[in-house]
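User: Some background: our group keeps a shared notebook of sequences we're curious about, and every so often someone picks one and asks for a predicted structure to add to the entry. Today it's my turn. The entry only has the sequence so far, pasted here. Could you supply the structure so I can complete it?
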Amino acid sequence: MTDRVPQPLISVIVPVYNVKPFLAKCIDSIIAQTYANMEVIIVDDGSTDGCAVICDNYAQRYAHISVIHKENGGLASARNAGIDVAKGDYLGFVDSDDFIEPFMYEKLMYSILKHSCDLAVCGINYVFDDGAVIPKANIEPEQVLDFPDAIREMNTFRLYDMGAWSKLYKKELFEDIRFPVGKLSEDFFIMYRIFERAQRIVYVPDACYNYFQRTNSITKSKKINSDFLDAAYEQMVFLDNKYPELSVVGHVSYASAALTVYDSYLKNKVDCPKELKAKYKTIVCDNLEYIQRATYLSKPKKIQFTLFKMNSWIYDMVFILYRMKNRV
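Assistant: Of course. Here's the predicted structure to add to the notebook entry:
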């Protein structure tokens, strides 16, 4: 495949913070890529568990790997530090407890060049501590989506979502855009703006990215991520103002984010304050008109909205039973 297309430089940015048991597997999977023209920028975000030494050892062994050591500032800060020094024509992000398939960047670059797009997104595998793998891939064939369809797909989580790591980007898409420091769900805060700049994206159905589900990861912690709701609100306002024909997408996503945040209380077995539960229910009720107009919504999703609005106690029971049967 690579002998038929040019090879622009890809900068792969790897933020690292206290992931010593997983780091070597992650970096090795990047080194093993079949795409040759790459630089790897490892950003040690103030690790205290020995990751810094591992990073430096890789940089000494491989000329295309460089390391930035910085004070701890969080995932967004680490990614931004990598973007600021990246020399590549294209950017990729790999979280340091995940790993990628050898063909990931070759496939994504090939599809970008083939379809003249500035952004490609691939399928993923959810990988669990016990070795179980649940693929989210090959749902549909490779396809090019324009902005309305691409942003709609992103917000349904059907083919892909707003995670930064399952994608390859033309570097210019990040001009004047950076991940918001100090926020959780930092990807959601910027991804709709990145998609708007790209206008067209290509979906590659192969499961190229392995998303490791750590039991003690940030997404599994007891901290409730209310930033997700804030990001959905900002997206809703953006679409209302700039793309009113996509208002349904923005409002439904905001209502869905309210459910997602409430669900995180249930997942983490944390009591949701009554005033917040009332707030989430109000958000859903205020956007019922948009939910009813969302012809793209699945039947289970519409049932979820209805159940939460009508009886949150039954909703809780159904959700808990669903989680017992499904891991993602």
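Suggested note for the entry: The CA atoms of residues 222 and 270 lie 7 Å apart. DSSP finds twelve helices and ten strands in the chain.
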